[in-house]
Amino acid sequence: MRKKDIIFCIILLMLQFIPTACRDDYFMNEEIGEGNATLSVTLCFDQEDAALGTTRAEGGDEGNAIQNINSLCMLFYDTTGKLVHNYIVKGEGLVIDPDVSGWSYNLEDNRIDEDKDEQGNQFEDSKTGTAMFKLRPIKRGKYYIYAVANMGDLTQYKDKITTREGLKAISLQWDPDDISQNSEMFGVFSLTPDRNAPDDLVTINSPGVQLHSWLRRAASKVTVAFDGSGLYANVQIYIENVILKDIPKTCSLGNPNTPGLVSEDVPDPDSYKDPDWKPEMHARSERYTASNGLYSEGKSIKIQKLPADLSVLTPENYIHICNDLHRYMGKGEEGDEQDIITNTHAHKAQSLFFYENMQGKGKSKKQSQNGVDIDYPDPDEQKEGSGWKDEKPYGTYVEVTGYYRCTAANEHVGAGPIKFRFMLGQDVTTDYNATRNTHYKLTLKFKGYGNDADWHIEYEEPSDIYVSTPQYISYLYNKSMNVTLKVVGEIKPNSTLDAKILGKDEDTGFTGWRPWGNGTSAFPTVPSDFYYSGWIYNDGPWNSFLSLRKTSLVKIVVPGYEDKPSWQTPINTKYNETYYNEKNKGNRSYKISNIGADDLADGEYSVKSNGNEHIFTIPLYTRAKELVTKTGFTGNNPYSAYPRKERIKFTIQVKDDVTGTYVPKTAYLDMIQVRRIENPKGVWRSAGNSDNFHVTLMRLPYDDAEDFKPFNSEGAWSATIVEGGDDFITLRSTVEGSGSDNAQQTGVKSIEGAGEHPIDFWIDFKGTIAENSTPRCAIVRVRYHNYTCEHDIYVRQGYAPITIDGNAESDKNPAWASYNVYCFDANNAPVYTKSPLEEGSLFRRGNRTAILASNNDRPGFTFGLGPSGSFDVLELGATTPSQKTWSQLAPSADDVKSRFASWSIAGDHERIATIEDFYTLESTSIHSNIGKAYGVLYGDGATETQKSVEVALGYDHNEDPTNSKKGMRGCFVFNINNSHNIFFPIGKSGYGRRKGMTSNGEKVGALRYAQRTDYYNKDGTGNIQYVPLFYDLFERPGAIYQCRNRLESTNNEVKKSSAFDINYFTMGFEGFENGASNNNNGSDSDACFIRTVKY
Q1: In which band, very low, low, confident or very high, does the pLDDT at 559 lie, cut at 50, 70 and 90?
Q2: Nearest one of 574, 554, 709, 589 to 631, comparing CA atoms
Q3: For residue 76, how far is the Cα from the chain centroid?
Q4: In the 8-state DSSP scheme, what is residue 343?
Q5: 1091 near 836, Cβ under 8 Å?
Q6: Does a cis peptide bond (omega within 30 degrees of 0) precede residue 137?
Q7: What pLDDT is attached to residue 426?
């Protein structure tokens, strides 16, 4: 800074108010009839909102100090401007006029929303008070009619009120000691409710007339808050005092008030908008002595007393503003809460009051027009044109004093006293009209090194519940997020904040198992034929993804069916509802105080109260992975292109700002379960490869899209290497993901990303390992949408077999091969695929002839078609393909005898994975360290996320495993404790199964994962009403893996299965019983993938 006491100009944006009232249709003939009229009178005034709490500062006055009507007079003047009558309508100790009746003081919210601001934008006003009464009899005629509040019965002004000009010219005297004495209000009457009604004659020409008036206070108020989020590092500003200076001594009751004006004539209202208007003013030196001049100071708000010994002036000891923990002013752990600004501008927060001060247009308020040079570096009170007080000597301004310190090791280092001043007015540039009846909410926003400041608009917050909507939660089951909800106002003693998840029967129009969209680019409309939209049996929130209480299960099982396959459980959803209601998943009450352990057992929440503002931090949860498996309902979002949505209703008893009684307040929160993120889900490298990978999270913009697209995080995001894995990767930020204003983060375990930026960063590998070394594993956890949603990326280096728990391999703890089987050599040993991404071949049970994946791209052999002719195959020991029909691929008598029940292979302690092996990967407990994830894996050659769906999902046998950018869909099994992860591909086509038993005319050998061949609702059973998620199951992806052993009967026990089922859509992972080989001779056996283990 150039010198210690530079005065910085600051900018204001004013909160404007909207007129409110009831309106009537009234047509009046201008010909005046005879007789009297009864008047129905409505008066409105800005009823400022209830308190949100007070600040830590001292001084000023409470914001509601001049709030309501204490007395009221209604004055009638004839067409010549002479007083006809002064009706005393209200006032304690006053004699109320006998013609006044029916006084009603309702303080109702009479907002209207037709009004617009200067930019043409609609906005809502704060609440208004409303008073109503009747007045009779009034002689018909034309009158000027006025309302005057909080000035008694006007006896002391009896000489002035004899004319309308005298009434409006009454000079109010500011009481600097008692702010309640400065609550005068004035309004004109009209036949329609118009806040800006002209001061015109009112025609009373019928037996009953409705009159309207808006009362406006002569005074306004200012609150000042601070925001240091734009400061550079190493800058601290210690605020000491906020003071209002040069406030008017007097104010005209009904005319624009211009302190310092020499002439007693009332200026034309348009003069205040004219930049060339230069009225004759008293001398600058007379501003404090002139009768219509100024008081040098209004009241002040003392933030703190700064020490004389500046060595103790440190961030730990004194309230300050910086860009880190104290951006909204504070010390210690205070200062980083956004609600500090809200509290500072609250209705009852300390405020600085003043009378209206209309000084017209003037020079630019900016300190510097070019941002570099100060336009008026030497302001001088005695020298006109020097820029002193922006050349408005009678204007009112705010002054902030404090101490500036910059510890940067550059030319900006320095310290010294600092002052910030701002001339009040209606805009940020050239207006100096500080109008009456306005709350100026000023936020001093520091930038850079503290020598630039902005002011921003804030809006009123009446007593109510406030929650930002929508908010987001993860697409995965058993995940949580915290929603912040604010209750403003006095809460009824012993009441609770009650939450309820709504269902379709409560007119929300949806239930959350469905895909959802609203037609925007972020949430595209869901095609009507994409899901079943008909009647659903027992539909309700119990079938959806959201819970108010902690999830405790992976799978909800109907009692008595714990070990039964999913297809055997009852098809109706009644148990979903029973479990949901018994566990009270959709209802919860949150105490405001005296929160005990029992209150937190279903998930910890907190409440932070500050006066009449209460901040609730409430956890929300996604539900179990399987909500009764047979039904298909799930806590996971199965849709890659569409989110899901639920609605929560919050209710609490709060004292109403208008009536003063406790009333229920409600708020609704739309919770969106984000669409499933598949790309990328894993990054693997071979032992000798350490190529870095550029991560960009992508999602499908709509179903059947040809390209994935990046998306922005709504709020900050982060990427962190999960603890417990191997130390072989680091993270690196990008400008795209973290913004250009942030320094690059390199070689770290956690990075921060910027809001409204894509989730974009690098995974950097550290060196290589020996070929057959134990693989190194890690998990990178991404949190996005303001950290409310999670997506894990599974990283691995090395393709050697691996145990999921990290212990030595054994018969009961096998090491899983990283590759599927491609074929068998002449010695009955498996020949593996060239890459862990490659799907391998399909094998009918016991038959070692490989049905090549290349068939899936052949005409007549693709999904749901054919097969038309013979398959390309590799027979046992063959190196070149041959052709066989489906029937020729059935297990031979020798196959059935030698390998059908127990499929042995050659190799050193190597076997086809048994059902017991697969179930070592099971995660039935919510506390299990084993988990499943589904998405796209990239391998060697891929160095960035692929946009093309065809490329991202298209890895096949023809790829160069060292140099392919393509990916593969599949299922990851991972151990959260050590980050070990295994991958099971589902195939380039997405269908890892050729069916040996079909229906509805489909040929055997068809490529299809599901047993069904058409939409679920076309089978004539009506079962779709119970399982709507299975509407298009026939075309959903998944894979079946053969198991080593097969029993003739499984007794409907999945843990005795001869095949294993990986459902990519529902994220299922369970035994398939003998569903892949029902007949004991193998005649109906499916062709499935094979994975081996070492033991």
Answers
A1: confident
A2: 574
A3: 54
A4: H
A5: no
A6: yes
A7: 83
Residue 632 has pLDDT above 90, yes or no: no
Residues 6+ apart with CB under 8 A from 55: 301, 340, 343, 344, 349, 350
Secondary structure of residue 341 in the 3-state scheme? helix
β-partners of residue 261 are 281
∠ Cα 768 772 777 (to 5°): 55
Nearest to 779 by CA among 930, 625, 922, 946: 930
The string of DSSP letters for 49-67 reads PPP----S-EESB-TTTT-
Query: Which percentage of the chain shows pLDDT scores above 70?
Result: 86
- Residues paired with 40 in a beta bridge: 134, 210
What single DSSP character describes residue 898?
Answer: I
Q: Is 1017 helix (H, G, I), strand (E, B) or coil?
A: helix
Q: At 421, is the secondary structure helix, strand, or coil?
A: strand
Question: pLDDT per residue over 489-526, tens digit each?
Answer: 999 999 999 999 997 645 455 678 999 887 766 778 89
Whether the CB-CB separation of 817 and 1092 falls below 8 Å is answered with yes
Collapse the DSSP code of 889 into the 3-class scheme (helix H, G, I; strand E, B; otherwise coil) and give the result: helix
Per-residue confidence (pLDDT) for residue 525, from 0 to 100: 87
Quick one: which of 65, 68, 79 has its CA closest to 32?
79
DSSP calls for 81-135: SBEEEEEEEEETTS---TTEEEEEE-----B----B-TTS-B-PPPPEEEEEEEE
Q: List all residues 6 or more positions away from 943 whose beta carbon is below 8 Å from its beta carbon.
A: 691, 692, 693, 694, 965
Structure tokens that stand for 733 in this block: 């930020």
Two tokens, residue 398? 């705010």
Tell me whether strands 815-824 and 830-832 are parallel, antiparallel or unpaired: antiparallel
Cα 840 to Cα 461, 587, 833, 996, 1057: the distances in Å are 62, 49, 6, 19, 22
Q: Which helix (H) or strand (E) holds 574?
A: helix 574-582
| Rounded-to-integer distance, Cα 776 and Cα 771, Å | 12
Tens of pLDDT, residue by residue over 186-209, are: 999 999 888 888 999 999 998 889
Q: Is 907 left (phi over 0), alpha (psi -120 to 50) or beta?
A: left
- The Cα–Cα gap between 466 and 450 comes to 32
Distance of CA 188 to the CA centre of its chain: 44
What's the rounded Cα separation, in Å, for the pair 1050 and 919? Answer: 15
**pLDDT averaged over every residue in the chain:** 85
Tell me the C-alpha to C-alpha distance, in Å, between residue 1022 and each of 534, 540, 736, 1026, 1036. Answer: 11, 19, 50, 8, 20
Identify any residues that bridge with 397 across adjacent strands, giving them in sequence order. Answer: 245, 423
CB 167 within 8 A of CB 85: no
- The rounded Cα 595 to chain-centroid distance in angstroms is 27
Q: How far apart are CA 161 and CA 77, in angstroms?
A: 10
Alpha carbon distance 764, 748 (integer Å)? 10
Cα–Cα distance, 1086 to 455 (Å, whole number)? 70
Minimum mean pLDDT among 622-631, 680-689, 762-771: which range? 622-631
Query: Alpha-carbon distance 365 to 1082, whole Å?
Result: 89
For residues 491 and 471, the answer to whether their CB atoms sit within 8 Å is: no
Calpha distance 845→784 (Å, rounded): 45
Q: Are 1016 and 532 in contact (CB under 8 A)?
A: yes
Q: Between 703 and 816, where is the model more confident?
A: 816
Which residues, at least 6 apart from 903, have a Cβ–Cβ distance to it below 8 Å?
845, 846, 912, 1042, 1044, 1045, 1046
48-96: pLDDT as tens digits: 432 222 233 455 666 555 567 889 999 999 999 999 999 999 999 999 9
Q: Detail the DSSP E strand segments found in 635-702.
A: 644-655, 662-673, 682-685, 693-696, 698-699
Query: Using CA atoms, how far apart are residues 578 and 589, in angstroms rounded to an integer?
Result: 20
Q: Measure the CA–CA gap between 367 and 365, rounded to whole angstroms.
A: 6
Residue 612: band (very low, low, confident or very high) from pLDDT cuts 50, 70, 90: confident
Q: Alpha-carbon distance 889 to 886, whole Å?
A: 5
